[in-house]
Amino acid sequence: MADQTEPTGPDLAHGIALTDLADSGKLVGHVGAEEILLVRRGTEVFAVDAHCTHYHGPLADGLIVGDTVRCPWHHACFDLRTGDALRAPALSAIACWSVEQHDGKVFVRGKRQQAAPVRPGSPSGKTPQKIVIVGGGAAGFAAAEKLRREQYQGSIVMLSNDDSAPVDRPNLSKDFLAGTAPQDWVPLRPDSFYPENGIDLRLKTNVTGIDARSREVALADGSKVAFDRLLLTTGAEPVRLSIPGADQPHVSTLRSLADCRGIIERAKTARRVVVLGASFIGLEVAAALRARGLEVHVVAPEKRPMERILGAQMGDFVRALHEEHGVVFHLEDTASAIDGKQVKLKSGGMLEADLVIVGIGVRPRIEIAERAGLAIDRGVTVNAYLETSAPEIYAAGDIARWPDPHSGESIRVEHWVVAERQGQAAAVNMLGGREKFATVPFFWSQHYDVPINYVGHAEKWDELTVDGDIAGRDCLLRFKLNGRTLAVASIFRDLQSLEAELAMERDAAG
Ligand SMILES: Cc1cc2nc3c(=O)[nH]c(=O)nc-3n(C[C@H](O)[C@H](O)[C@H](O)COP(=O)(O)OP(=O)(O)OC[C@H]3O[C@@H](n4cnc5c(N)ncnc54)[C@H](O)[C@@H]3O)c2cc1C
Ligand code: FES
Protein backbone atom coordinates (compact mmCIF):
# COMPACT_ATOMS: atom_id res chain seq x y z
CA MET A 1 0.00 0.00 0.00
CA ALA A 2 1.28 3.50 -0.82
CA ASP A 3 2.46 5.48 2.18
CA GLN A 4 0.19 8.52 2.36
CA THR A 5 0.53 11.37 4.83
CA GLU A 6 -2.81 12.49 6.20
CA PRO A 7 -3.39 16.21 5.66
CA THR A 8 -3.44 18.19 8.91
CA GLY A 9 -6.64 19.38 10.63
CA PRO A 10 -10.17 19.71 9.33
CA ASP A 11 -11.14 19.75 5.66
CA LEU A 12 -11.75 23.47 5.19
CA ALA A 13 -13.63 22.95 1.92
CA HIS A 14 -16.33 21.31 4.07
CA GLY A 15 -16.19 24.22 6.49
CA ILE A 16 -15.74 24.68 10.22
CA ALA A 17 -17.90 26.52 12.75
CA LEU A 18 -16.72 30.12 13.23
CA THR A 19 -16.92 29.47 16.98
CA ASP A 20 -14.17 26.84 16.59
CA LEU A 21 -11.77 29.70 15.84
CA ALA A 22 -11.24 32.12 18.73
CA ASP A 23 -10.76 35.82 17.98
CA SER A 24 -7.07 36.33 17.05
CA GLY A 25 -6.86 32.53 16.97
CA LYS A 26 -5.07 30.32 14.41
CA LEU A 27 -6.00 26.93 13.05
CA VAL A 28 -4.40 24.67 10.47
CA GLY A 29 -6.63 22.69 8.13
CA HIS A 30 -6.47 21.66 4.51
CA VAL A 31 -8.12 21.81 1.12
CA GLY A 32 -7.18 18.68 -0.78
CA ALA A 33 -3.52 18.04 0.02
CA GLU A 34 -2.68 21.70 0.66
CA GLU A 35 -2.26 22.87 4.24
CA ILE A 36 -3.89 26.17 5.04
CA LEU A 37 -3.62 28.51 8.00
CA LEU A 38 -6.85 30.20 9.12
CA VAL A 39 -6.55 33.34 11.19
CA ARG A 40 -9.52 35.14 12.72
CA ARG A 41 -9.48 38.88 13.35
CA GLY A 42 -12.88 39.87 14.77
CA THR A 43 -15.46 38.73 12.23
CA GLU A 44 -12.92 38.54 9.44
CA VAL A 45 -11.15 35.26 8.64
CA PHE A 46 -7.98 34.99 6.54
CA ALA A 47 -6.82 31.82 4.81
CA VAL A 48 -3.20 31.57 3.65
CA ASP A 49 -0.62 28.87 2.93
CA ALA A 50 0.44 27.26 6.20
CA HIS A 51 4.15 27.31 5.40
CA CYS A 52 6.74 30.03 5.00
CA THR A 53 8.32 30.49 1.57
CA HIS A 54 11.80 30.76 3.09
CA TYR A 55 12.51 27.29 4.58
CA HIS A 56 8.93 26.04 4.97
CA GLY A 57 8.56 27.15 8.63
CA PRO A 58 5.14 26.40 10.18
CA LEU A 59 3.30 29.73 10.24
CA ALA A 60 0.76 28.35 12.72
CA ASP A 61 3.54 28.51 15.34
CA GLY A 62 4.26 32.13 14.46
CA LEU A 63 2.97 35.43 15.78
CA ILE A 64 -0.02 37.39 14.49
CA VAL A 65 0.62 41.14 14.56
CA GLY A 66 -2.27 43.15 13.11
CA ASP A 67 -3.06 41.72 9.69
CA THR A 68 0.31 39.99 9.41
CA VAL A 69 1.88 36.71 10.45
CA ARG A 70 5.54 36.35 11.47
CA CYS A 71 7.39 33.09 10.87
CA PRO A 72 8.68 31.35 14.00
CA TRP A 73 11.95 30.17 12.45
CA HIS A 74 13.71 33.25 11.02
CA HIS A 75 11.16 36.03 11.58
CA ALA A 76 9.93 36.61 8.02
CA CYS A 77 6.60 38.44 7.92
CA PHE A 78 3.65 38.05 5.54
CA ASP A 79 0.59 40.17 4.87
CA LEU A 80 -2.51 38.08 5.62
CA ARG A 81 -4.61 40.08 3.11
CA THR A 82 -2.28 39.90 0.12
CA GLY A 83 0.20 37.16 1.03
CA ASP A 84 3.09 39.57 0.30
CA ALA A 85 6.44 38.82 1.90
CA LEU A 86 6.81 42.00 3.96
CA ARG A 87 10.07 41.07 5.65
CA ALA A 88 13.05 39.02 4.60
CA PRO A 89 14.36 36.34 4.72
CA ALA A 90 11.22 35.32 2.81
CA LEU A 91 11.25 36.98 -0.60
CA SER A 92 8.24 35.22 -2.17
CA ALA A 93 4.58 35.69 -1.23
CA ILE A 94 2.44 32.98 0.34
CA ALA A 95 -0.80 32.13 -1.48
CA CYS A 96 -4.07 33.54 -0.15
CA TRP A 97 -7.30 31.55 -0.34
CA SER A 98 -10.89 32.77 -0.72
CA VAL A 99 -12.99 32.51 2.41
CA GLU A 100 -16.79 32.38 2.55
CA GLN A 101 -18.89 32.62 5.69
CA HIS A 102 -22.52 31.59 6.00
CA ASP A 103 -24.75 29.98 8.61
CA GLY A 104 -22.05 30.45 11.24
CA LYS A 105 -19.58 28.40 9.23
CA VAL A 106 -16.32 29.28 7.48
CA PHE A 107 -15.46 27.67 4.14
CA VAL A 108 -12.20 27.93 2.21
CA ARG A 109 -12.57 27.97 -1.57
CA GLY A 110 -9.89 28.31 -4.26
CA LYS A 111 -6.54 30.10 -4.26
CA ARG A 112 -6.83 33.81 -4.98
CA GLN A 113 -4.93 35.53 -7.78
CA GLN A 114 -1.98 37.58 -6.55
CA ALA A 115 -2.71 41.31 -6.90
CA ALA A 116 0.00 43.35 -8.66
CA PRO A 117 1.71 45.70 -6.20
CA VAL A 118 0.97 49.38 -6.50
CA ARG A 119 3.87 51.39 -7.83
CA PRO A 120 4.99 53.95 -5.28
CA GLY A 121 5.17 57.57 -6.32
CA SER A 122 8.49 59.34 -6.13
CA PRO A 123 8.14 62.33 -3.78
CA SER A 124 11.02 64.05 -5.53
CA GLY A 125 9.29 63.41 -8.87
CA LYS A 126 12.64 62.18 -10.20
CA THR A 127 12.54 58.45 -10.72
CA PRO A 128 16.06 57.27 -11.44
CA GLN A 129 16.75 55.79 -14.86
CA LYS A 130 19.89 53.88 -13.93
CA ILE A 131 20.43 52.06 -10.66
CA VAL A 132 23.76 50.33 -10.14
CA ILE A 133 24.26 47.82 -7.34
CA VAL A 134 27.80 46.82 -6.40
CA GLY A 135 27.70 43.32 -4.90
CA GLY A 136 25.68 40.19 -5.57
CA GLY A 137 25.04 38.97 -2.03
CA ALA A 138 22.19 39.25 0.45
CA ALA A 139 21.73 43.03 0.37
CA GLY A 140 22.41 43.47 -3.36
CA PHE A 141 20.05 40.70 -4.40
CA ALA A 142 17.26 41.78 -2.04
CA ALA A 143 17.55 45.34 -3.37
CA ALA A 144 17.33 44.30 -7.03
CA GLU A 145 14.40 41.97 -6.34
CA LYS A 146 12.61 44.68 -4.36
CA LEU A 147 13.13 47.29 -7.08
CA ARG A 148 11.31 45.06 -9.56
CA ARG A 149 8.63 44.14 -7.00
CA GLU A 150 8.03 47.87 -6.60
CA GLN A 151 7.45 48.00 -10.37
CA TYR A 152 10.60 50.02 -11.04
CA GLN A 153 10.96 50.13 -14.82
CA GLY A 154 14.44 51.63 -15.21
CA SER A 155 17.74 49.84 -15.66
CA ILE A 156 19.33 47.74 -12.90
CA VAL A 157 22.97 46.76 -13.27
CA MET A 158 24.32 44.43 -10.61
CA LEU A 159 28.11 44.12 -10.51
CA SER A 160 29.59 41.23 -8.58
CA ASN A 161 33.15 39.98 -8.46
CA ASP A 162 31.84 36.56 -7.43
CA ASP A 163 31.69 33.87 -10.08
CA SER A 164 28.23 32.66 -9.07
CA ALA A 165 24.88 34.41 -9.01
CA PRO A 166 23.52 35.31 -5.55
CA VAL A 167 23.41 32.30 -3.23
CA ASP A 168 21.83 31.42 0.09
CA ARG A 169 25.09 32.04 1.94
CA PRO A 170 23.93 30.77 5.38
CA ASN A 171 23.39 27.36 3.81
CA LEU A 172 27.08 27.15 2.87
CA SER A 173 28.07 26.35 6.46
CA LYS A 174 24.96 24.28 7.21
CA ASP A 175 22.94 21.79 5.15
CA PHE A 176 24.77 22.26 1.85
CA LEU A 177 28.17 21.74 3.47
CA ALA A 178 26.81 18.80 5.47
CA GLY A 179 25.62 17.20 2.23
CA THR A 180 21.95 17.23 3.27
CA ALA A 181 20.75 20.00 0.93
CA PRO A 182 20.52 19.57 -2.82
CA GLN A 183 22.39 21.89 -5.15
CA ASP A 184 19.20 23.71 -6.21
CA TRP A 185 18.62 25.04 -2.68
CA VAL A 186 21.69 27.23 -2.97
CA PRO A 187 20.92 29.88 -5.63
CA LEU A 188 18.53 32.54 -4.33
CA ARG A 189 16.85 32.44 -7.74
CA PRO A 190 17.42 30.42 -10.91
CA ASP A 191 19.73 31.98 -13.52
CA SER A 192 16.71 32.79 -15.72
CA PHE A 193 15.37 35.17 -13.05
CA TYR A 194 17.86 37.89 -13.96
CA PRO A 195 17.16 38.27 -17.69
CA GLU A 196 13.44 37.71 -17.10
CA ASN A 197 13.39 40.62 -14.67
CA GLY A 198 15.65 42.90 -16.63
CA ILE A 199 18.45 42.68 -14.09
CA ASP A 200 21.80 43.01 -15.84
CA LEU A 201 23.81 40.76 -13.53
CA ARG A 202 27.51 40.91 -14.41
CA LEU A 203 29.52 38.26 -12.60
CA LYS A 204 33.33 38.18 -12.23
CA THR A 205 33.19 41.96 -12.50
CA ASN A 206 35.37 43.81 -10.03
CA VAL A 207 34.50 47.41 -9.20
CA THR A 208 37.69 49.33 -8.53
CA GLY A 209 36.46 52.87 -8.00
CA ILE A 210 33.56 55.26 -7.65
CA ASP A 211 33.45 58.77 -9.04
CA ALA A 212 30.73 60.35 -6.90
CA ARG A 213 30.78 63.59 -8.90
CA SER A 214 30.46 62.21 -12.40
CA ARG A 215 28.29 59.37 -11.07
CA GLU A 216 30.22 56.50 -12.53
CA VAL A 217 31.80 53.35 -11.20
CA ALA A 218 35.07 52.11 -12.65
CA LEU A 219 35.61 48.43 -13.41
CA ALA A 220 38.85 46.46 -13.33
CA ASP A 221 38.84 46.17 -17.15
CA GLY A 222 38.99 49.97 -17.42
CA SER A 223 35.36 50.46 -18.45
CA LYS A 224 32.86 52.64 -16.60
CA VAL A 225 29.19 52.26 -15.67
CA ALA A 226 27.07 55.36 -15.11
CA PHE A 227 24.43 55.60 -12.39
CA ASP A 228 21.68 57.88 -11.13
CA ARG A 229 21.60 55.98 -7.82
CA LEU A 230 24.29 53.66 -6.52
CA LEU A 231 23.95 51.01 -3.84
CA LEU A 232 27.10 49.59 -2.27
CA THR A 233 26.72 46.09 -0.86
CA THR A 234 30.26 44.75 -0.94
CA GLY A 235 29.82 42.69 2.24
CA ALA A 236 32.68 41.34 4.26
CA GLU A 237 35.65 39.11 3.64
CA PRO A 238 37.20 36.53 5.91
CA VAL A 239 40.23 37.60 7.91
CA ARG A 240 43.21 35.67 6.54
CA LEU A 241 45.69 33.88 8.73
CA SER A 242 49.17 35.33 8.66
CA ILE A 243 51.07 32.38 10.14
CA PRO A 244 53.59 30.33 8.14
CA GLY A 245 51.92 27.73 5.94
CA ALA A 246 48.52 29.47 5.81
CA ASP A 247 48.69 29.77 2.02
CA GLN A 248 48.60 26.03 1.33
CA PRO A 249 45.78 24.62 -0.79
CA HIS A 250 44.28 22.57 2.03
CA VAL A 251 43.86 25.73 4.17
CA SER A 252 40.62 27.54 3.38
CA THR A 253 38.23 30.22 4.55
CA LEU A 254 34.49 30.02 3.79
CA ARG A 255 32.56 32.85 2.20
CA SER A 256 31.60 31.97 -1.36
CA LEU A 257 29.99 29.00 -3.06
CA ALA A 258 33.39 28.31 -4.67
CA ASP A 259 35.00 28.15 -1.19
CA CYS A 260 32.27 25.77 -0.07
CA ARG A 261 32.64 23.53 -3.11
CA GLY A 262 36.41 23.43 -2.57
CA ILE A 263 35.92 22.31 1.04
CA ILE A 264 33.37 19.65 0.02
CA GLU A 265 35.77 18.30 -2.59
CA ARG A 266 38.63 17.98 -0.09
CA ALA A 267 36.31 16.61 2.61
CA LYS A 268 35.63 13.62 0.34
CA THR A 269 39.10 12.23 0.93
CA ALA A 270 40.01 13.92 4.22
CA ARG A 271 40.00 12.06 7.53
CA ARG A 272 40.63 14.92 9.91
CA VAL A 273 39.85 18.63 9.80
CA VAL A 274 41.16 21.37 12.08
CA VAL A 275 38.88 24.41 12.41
CA LEU A 276 40.67 27.54 13.55
CA GLY A 277 38.18 29.75 15.39
CA ALA A 278 35.11 28.91 17.46
CA SER A 279 32.93 31.55 15.82
CA PHE A 280 29.43 30.87 14.46
CA ILE A 281 30.83 29.93 11.07
CA GLY A 282 33.67 27.85 12.53
CA LEU A 283 31.31 25.84 14.70
CA GLU A 284 28.67 25.43 11.99
CA VAL A 285 31.44 24.09 9.75
CA ALA A 286 32.47 21.73 12.56
CA ALA A 287 28.89 20.41 12.80
CA ALA A 288 28.53 20.06 9.02
CA LEU A 289 31.81 18.17 8.67
CA ARG A 290 30.94 15.87 11.58
CA ALA A 291 27.81 15.03 9.58
CA ARG A 292 30.17 13.99 6.77
CA GLY A 293 31.98 11.70 9.21
CA LEU A 294 35.22 13.69 9.52
CA GLU A 295 37.18 13.89 12.75
CA VAL A 296 36.94 17.55 13.83
CA HIS A 297 39.25 19.55 16.10
CA VAL A 298 38.51 23.19 16.94
CA VAL A 299 41.33 25.50 18.04
CA ALA A 300 40.40 28.91 19.48
CA PRO A 301 41.91 31.48 21.85
CA GLU A 302 38.82 32.02 23.99
CA LYS A 303 37.91 30.13 27.14
CA ARG A 304 34.41 29.36 25.92
CA PRO A 305 32.96 29.43 22.42
CA MET A 306 30.59 32.33 21.72
CA GLU A 307 30.78 33.71 25.26
CA ARG A 308 31.21 37.29 24.03
CA ILE A 309 27.88 37.19 22.19
CA LEU A 310 25.82 34.57 24.02
CA GLY A 311 27.24 34.62 27.55
CA ALA A 312 29.04 31.95 29.59
CA GLN A 313 26.17 29.51 30.14
CA MET A 314 25.20 29.34 26.47
CA GLY A 315 28.90 29.11 25.60
CA ASP A 316 29.26 26.06 27.86
CA PHE A 317 26.17 24.52 26.31
CA VAL A 318 27.45 25.04 22.76
CA ARG A 319 30.75 23.45 23.69
CA ALA A 320 29.03 20.46 25.33
CA LEU A 321 26.72 20.07 22.33
CA HIS A 322 29.65 19.86 19.95
CA GLU A 323 31.54 17.51 22.26
CA GLU A 324 28.51 15.23 22.37
CA HIS A 325 28.85 15.03 18.61
CA GLY A 326 32.53 14.17 18.83
CA VAL A 327 34.20 17.55 18.26
CA VAL A 328 37.47 17.98 20.19
CA PHE A 329 38.18 21.51 21.46
CA HIS A 330 41.61 23.06 22.02
CA LEU A 331 40.58 26.30 23.73
CA GLU A 332 42.84 29.08 25.03
CA ASP A 333 45.21 28.07 22.25
CA THR A 334 46.02 29.23 18.70
CA ALA A 335 47.87 27.87 15.68
CA SER A 336 51.41 29.15 15.23
CA ALA A 337 52.24 27.45 11.91
CA ILE A 338 50.89 24.93 9.44
CA ASP A 339 53.62 22.67 8.20
CA GLY A 340 52.15 20.39 5.53
CA LYS A 341 49.53 18.37 7.34
CA GLN A 342 50.71 19.41 10.77
CA VAL A 343 49.09 22.30 12.60
CA LYS A 344 51.44 23.54 15.29
CA LEU A 345 49.83 25.04 18.37
CA LYS A 346 51.19 27.89 20.50
CA SER A 347 50.82 25.64 23.54
CA GLY A 348 53.40 23.32 21.97
CA GLY A 349 50.98 20.65 20.78
CA MET A 350 50.54 19.50 17.20
CA LEU A 351 47.46 18.34 15.29
CA GLU A 352 47.35 16.36 12.05
CA ALA A 353 44.97 17.88 9.49
CA ASP A 354 44.04 16.95 5.93
CA LEU A 355 41.97 20.09 5.82
CA VAL A 356 42.19 23.36 7.78
CA ILE A 357 39.25 25.77 7.88
CA VAL A 358 39.97 29.28 9.09
CA GLY A 359 36.99 31.01 10.73
CA ILE A 360 38.61 33.84 12.67
CA GLY A 361 36.21 36.62 11.73
CA VAL A 362 35.49 38.91 8.81
CA ARG A 363 36.20 42.51 7.94
CA PRO A 364 33.94 44.78 5.92
CA ARG A 365 35.02 45.42 2.31
CA ILE A 366 35.08 49.19 2.45
CA GLU A 367 38.09 50.00 0.26
CA ILE A 368 36.19 51.42 -2.72
CA ALA A 369 33.94 53.50 -0.46
CA GLU A 370 36.97 54.79 1.40
CA ARG A 371 38.82 55.72 -1.81
CA ALA A 372 35.72 57.55 -3.04
CA GLY A 373 35.88 59.76 0.05
CA LEU A 374 32.68 58.48 1.69
CA ALA A 375 32.43 58.89 5.47
CA ILE A 376 33.84 55.79 7.15
CA ASP A 377 33.60 54.66 10.75
CA ARG A 378 34.57 50.97 11.05
CA GLY A 379 32.22 50.47 8.11
CA VAL A 380 30.50 52.83 5.70
CA THR A 381 28.55 55.42 7.65
CA VAL A 382 24.89 55.69 6.60
CA ASN A 383 21.91 57.58 8.01
CA ALA A 384 18.53 56.09 8.89
CA TYR A 385 17.65 56.05 5.16
CA LEU A 386 20.85 54.14 4.36
CA GLU A 387 22.29 57.13 2.50
CA THR A 388 26.06 57.52 2.66
CA SER A 389 27.73 60.91 2.99
CA ALA A 390 27.62 61.31 -0.83
CA PRO A 391 24.36 62.24 -2.56
CA GLU A 392 22.54 59.39 -4.35
CA ILE A 393 24.95 56.78 -2.97
CA TYR A 394 23.52 54.25 -0.53
CA ALA A 395 25.09 51.37 1.40
CA ALA A 396 23.56 48.25 2.96
CA GLY A 397 24.54 44.94 4.54
CA ASP A 398 27.75 43.95 6.29
CA ILE A 399 29.52 47.18 5.30
CA ALA A 400 26.91 49.62 6.65
CA ARG A 401 27.05 51.26 10.06
CA TRP A 402 23.63 52.73 10.75
CA PRO A 403 21.94 54.56 13.64
CA ASP A 404 20.09 51.76 15.42
CA PRO A 405 17.08 53.22 17.26
CA HIS A 406 16.91 50.25 19.67
CA SER A 407 20.38 50.44 21.18
CA GLY A 408 20.66 54.18 20.48
CA GLU A 409 24.08 53.48 18.95
CA SER A 410 25.51 53.35 15.47
CA ILE A 411 26.02 49.70 14.79
CA ARG A 412 27.29 47.40 12.06
CA VAL A 413 26.35 43.73 12.14
CA GLU A 414 26.97 40.70 9.97
CA HIS A 415 23.51 39.14 9.78
CA TRP A 416 21.81 37.74 6.69
CA VAL A 417 18.33 39.05 7.49
CA VAL A 418 19.60 42.54 8.33
CA ALA A 419 21.51 42.70 5.04
CA GLU A 420 18.44 41.66 3.05
CA ARG A 421 16.13 44.08 4.85
CA GLN A 422 18.59 46.91 4.44
CA GLY A 423 18.85 46.12 0.72
CA GLN A 424 15.07 46.32 0.47
CA ALA A 425 14.84 49.57 2.43
CA ALA A 426 17.59 51.11 0.30
CA ALA A 427 15.68 50.05 -2.84
CA VAL A 428 12.56 51.85 -1.67
CA ASN A 429 14.56 54.94 -0.77
CA MET A 430 16.43 54.98 -4.08
CA LEU A 431 12.99 55.23 -5.71
CA GLY A 432 12.22 58.33 -3.68
CA GLY A 433 10.68 56.71 -0.60
CA ARG A 434 11.69 57.84 2.89
CA GLU A 435 11.77 54.54 4.76
CA LYS A 436 13.80 54.64 7.94
CA PHE A 437 15.66 51.44 8.62
CA ALA A 438 14.45 50.69 12.13
CA THR A 439 14.25 46.89 12.14
CA VAL A 440 15.38 45.03 15.25
CA PRO A 441 18.48 43.02 14.24
CA PHE A 442 17.96 39.26 14.03
CA PHE A 443 20.20 36.29 13.33
CA TRP A 444 20.06 32.56 13.63
CA SER A 445 22.66 29.86 13.82
CA GLN A 446 22.23 26.08 13.50
CA HIS A 447 24.30 23.43 15.26
CA TYR A 448 23.20 19.86 14.48
CA ASP A 449 19.46 19.86 15.29
CA VAL A 450 19.71 22.87 17.63
CA PRO A 451 18.79 26.30 16.25
CA ILE A 452 19.83 29.40 18.18
CA ASN A 453 17.83 32.56 17.46
CA TYR A 454 18.95 36.01 18.54
CA VAL A 455 17.01 39.29 18.38
CA GLY A 456 18.36 42.71 19.30
CA HIS A 457 21.93 43.81 19.80
CA ALA A 458 23.89 43.71 23.04
CA GLU A 459 27.60 44.46 22.89
CA LYS A 460 27.67 44.48 26.67
CA TRP A 461 25.21 43.73 29.44
CA ASP A 462 25.10 43.92 33.24
CA GLU A 463 22.42 41.28 33.75
CA LEU A 464 21.69 38.00 32.00
CA THR A 465 18.54 36.11 32.93
CA VAL A 466 17.83 32.56 31.87
CA ASP A 467 14.28 31.37 31.53
CA GLY A 468 13.96 27.61 31.07
CA ASP A 469 16.73 25.07 30.73
CA ILE A 470 19.68 25.62 28.39
CA ALA A 471 20.90 22.00 28.58
CA GLY A 472 17.32 20.84 27.98
CA ARG A 473 17.30 22.92 24.76
CA ASP A 474 14.32 24.96 25.84
CA CYS A 475 15.40 28.39 26.97
CA LEU A 476 15.25 32.13 26.54
CA LEU A 477 18.12 34.35 27.65
CA ARG A 478 17.66 38.09 28.17
CA PHE A 479 20.67 40.37 27.91
CA LYS A 480 19.94 43.53 29.90
CA LEU A 481 21.71 46.80 30.55
CA ASN A 482 20.41 49.14 33.26
CA GLY A 483 17.25 47.05 33.48
CA ARG A 484 16.44 47.30 29.75
CA THR A 485 16.41 44.21 27.53
CA LEU A 486 18.82 44.78 24.66
CA ALA A 487 18.77 41.30 23.16
CA VAL A 488 17.20 37.88 23.55
CA ALA A 489 18.73 34.52 22.58
CA SER A 490 16.60 31.41 22.51
CA ILE A 491 16.44 27.72 21.71
CA PHE A 492 13.04 26.33 20.73
CA ARG A 493 11.21 29.34 22.22
CA ASP A 494 10.21 30.76 18.86
CA LEU A 495 7.01 32.47 19.88
CA GLN A 496 8.70 34.20 22.81
CA SER A 497 11.52 35.28 20.53
CA LEU A 498 8.97 36.88 18.18
CA GLU A 499 7.21 38.51 21.11
CA ALA A 500 10.51 39.89 22.37
CA GLU A 501 11.20 41.32 18.90
CA LEU A 502 7.79 43.02 18.88
CA ALA A 503 8.35 44.42 22.38
CA MET A 504 11.72 45.86 21.26
CA GLU A 505 10.09 47.43 18.20
CA ARG A 506 7.42 49.05 20.36
CA ASP A 507 9.95 50.16 22.93
CA ALA A 508 11.99 52.01 20.27
CA ALA A 509 8.88 53.48 18.64
CA GLY A 510 7.30 54.59 21.92
C1 LIG B 1 29.19 30.52 5.48
C2 LIG B 1 28.37 31.64 6.06
C3 LIG B 1 27.26 31.34 6.85
C4 LIG B 1 26.48 32.36 7.38
N1 LIG B 1 25.40 32.04 8.15
C5 LIG B 1 24.63 33.02 8.66
C6 LIG B 1 23.49 32.72 9.45
O1 LIG B 1 23.19 31.57 9.71
N2 LIG B 1 22.75 33.74 9.92
C7 LIG B 1 23.06 35.03 9.67
O2 LIG B 1 22.35 35.92 10.13
N3 LIG B 1 24.14 35.36 8.92
C8 LIG B 1 24.93 34.38 8.42
N4 LIG B 1 26.03 34.71 7.67
C9 LIG B 1 26.34 36.12 7.42
C10 LIG B 1 25.60 36.61 6.19
O3 LIG B 1 25.78 35.73 5.12
C11 LIG B 1 26.06 38.02 5.82
O4 LIG B 1 25.73 38.88 6.89
C12 LIG B 1 25.41 38.51 4.53
O5 LIG B 1 25.74 37.69 3.45
C13 LIG B 1 25.84 39.95 4.24
O6 LIG B 1 25.28 40.34 3.05
P1 LIG B 1 25.98 41.46 2.13
O7 LIG B 1 25.10 41.62 0.95
O8 LIG B 1 26.33 42.62 2.96
O9 LIG B 1 27.36 40.80 1.71
P2 LIG B 1 27.66 39.47 0.86
O10 LIG B 1 26.50 38.53 0.94
O11 LIG B 1 28.99 38.99 1.31
O12 LIG B 1 27.78 40.00 -0.61
C14 LIG B 1 28.82 40.86 -1.01
C15 LIG B 1 28.92 40.82 -2.51
O13 LIG B 1 29.75 41.86 -2.97
C16 LIG B 1 30.64 41.37 -3.96
N5 LIG B 1 31.79 42.30 -3.99
C17 LIG B 1 32.60 42.66 -2.98
N6 LIG B 1 33.49 43.58 -3.40
C18 LIG B 1 33.24 43.83 -4.71
C19 LIG B 1 33.80 44.66 -5.70
N7 LIG B 1 34.81 45.47 -5.43
N8 LIG B 1 33.29 44.61 -6.95
C20 LIG B 1 32.25 43.80 -7.26
N9 LIG B 1 31.68 42.99 -6.34
C21 LIG B 1 32.15 43.01 -5.10
C22 LIG B 1 30.91 39.94 -3.51
O14 LIG B 1 31.38 39.13 -4.55
C23 LIG B 1 29.50 39.54 -3.07
O15 LIG B 1 28.74 39.17 -4.20
C24 LIG B 1 26.83 33.71 7.13
C25 LIG B 1 27.97 34.00 6.35
C26 LIG B 1 28.73 32.98 5.82
C27 LIG B 1 29.94 33.30 4.98
S1 FES C 1 11.42 29.44 7.46
FE1 FES C 1 10.26 31.23 7.70
S2 FES C 1 11.72 32.76 7.91
FE2 FES C 1 12.88 31.01 7.56
Description:
The chain has a six-stranded antiparallel β-sheet with strand order 1-10-9-4-3-2, with no helix packed on it. It has a five-stranded parallel β-sheet with strand order 13-12-11-17-29. By secondary structure, the chain is of the alpha/beta class. The protein has nine helices and 36 strands. The longest helix has 18 residues, at 307-324. Strand 9 and strand 10 (105-111) form a beta hairpin. The structure holds flavin-adenine dinucleotide and FE2/S2 (inorganic) cluster. Flavin-adenine dinucleotide (FAD) binds at residues 134-140, 159-162, 169-170, 172-173, 206-207, 233-236, 254-255, 281, 365, 368, 397-398, 414-417, 419, 443-445.
What structural class do the secondary elements suggest?
Answer: alpha/beta
User: Within the largest sheet, what's the order of strands?
Assistant: 1-10-9-4-3-2
Q: Mean pLDDT score, rounded?
A: 95
Number of continuous helical runs: 9
* Low-pLDDT regions: 119-124
Shape: globular
The number of strands is: 36
- Using only CA atoms, what is the Rg? 24 Å
**Heterogens:** flavin-adenine dinucleotide, FE2/S2 (inorganic) cluster
Relative strand content: 25-35%
Helix % is: 10-25%
Distance between the ends: 59 Å
Q: Largest sheet, if any? A: 6 strands, antiparallel
